[in-house]
Design a protein that fits this description.
This protein is α/β, with parallel strands linked by helices. It has 2 domains: 159 residues, NAD(P)-binding Rossmann-like Domain (Rossmann fold); 82 residues, Alpha-Beta Complex (UDP-galactose 4-epimerase, domain 1). 43% of the residues lie in helices and 16% in strands. The protein has 10 helices and 10 strands. Strands 3-2-1-4-5-6-9 form a 7-stranded parallel β-sheet, sandwiched between helices. Strands 7-8-10 form a 3-stranded mixed β-sheet.
Length: 304
């Protein structure tokens, strides 16, 4: 269904943000794409207006919300990498918690009836059973979600929380599938000789195509209940050894083989969002093929 509605997308220059801008524009939304250090890679759609801003500058956030006055806000901006959170915990807390607080307060101060979709993480702590966090990233996303749920309750704000799993698909990403695909593309062009190494091939993750994820986000704008959390994933976990094996079927270069004796289980419950009428449509092999195609094209350009 084609709609005409305004949406502000924060973190629009990132991996998910680029896909979100294209998707919502294709659905008829008027998109304001907030970028900071990154830029939109394909700013050709007249439905997308790119604006620059820093969510850690209160005045900039307040002026942005006051000027744009969006009906919907997709809050993707943040520091989303576990390893970086160890070396830069303050930056991680500021980008994931403080920036979210500034955004929510700007909306509240303007008395906007905007629906806000906050993108948390499947890695965050479940609040009723909070245990010590495994890393600063997990803690920052847990605080972010607690903030959103409480602001929704305190001030009757229309805030919904999505908790996506590992998103994959074409485009620049620091995720494990993209890292493996980039390595394969370089090996195919004889630009890379070091083998692929996986520290723990038994680790289980739920992989979801980013294009399915942004479709899920639209469904949450349409039907998500304020204050509720929704896991967004494929509903199936795979070991990193299985990921490497799946990539092996797509390339002639030799990849390492792993034998797993004991699996580390990981799962998310996507029943809540399924009840809203959403389900993933892209298969895992299809997504991996698209990821590898993206990096093969880039390897061709680098070689040229």
């Amino acid at each position: 269904m084609t709609v005409t509605s305004d949406i502000l997308i924060t973190g629009a220059g990132g991996f998910t943000g680029q896909h979100a801008c294209r998707y919502f524009a294709s659905q008829g939304y008027r998109v304001t794409a907030l970028t900071h250090k990154q830029h939109l890679k394909d700013p050709t759609d007249d439905q997308v207006k790119e604006v620059k801003g820093d969510l850690l500058e209160w005045k900039q956030v307040r002026d942005l919300v006051k000027t744009v006055r969006p009906e919907n806000i997709l809050h993707l901006a943040g520091q989303n990498h576990v390893e970086e959170s160890w070396s830069h915990p303050l930056k991680t807390m500021n980008m994931n918690f403080l920036a979210t607080l500034y955004l929510l307060e700007a909306v509240r101060n303007e008395k906007l009836p905007a629906k806000i979709l906050l993108i948390g993480s499947a890695l965050q702590n479940d609040q009723p059973h909070m245990m010590p966090s495994k890393h600063p990233y997990e803690l920052s996303k847990t605080f972010q979600t607690m903030l959103a749920k409480n602001w929704s309750a305190f001030y009757q704000m229309n805030i919904v929380i999505a908790r996506p799993t590992n998103l994959i698909g074409p485009g620049p990403s620091r995720g494990v599938c993209s890292m493996i695909a980039e390595k394969i593309a370089s090996m195919e062009k004889k630009m890379e000789s070091d083998p692929i190494t996986i520290d723990d091939p038994s680790v289980q993750r739920d992989f979801l195509d980013v294009r399915d994820a942004v479709a899920a986000y639209e469904r949450l704008f349409q039907k998500g209940i304020p204050g509720e959390e929704y896991d967004v994933g494929s509903g199936k976990s795979r070991s990193l050894a299985e990921v490497v094996e799946a990539f092996q079927s797509l390339t002639s270069v030799s990849l390492p083989q792993y034998s797993i004796q004991e699996k580390n289980t990981f799962s998310v419950n996507i029943e809540n969002i399924r009840q809203l009428g959403w389900k993933p449509v892209r298969s895992f092999p299809e997504s991996l093929k698209d990821v590898l195609s993206y990096y093969r094209i880039h390897a061709e350009k680098e070689e040229a």
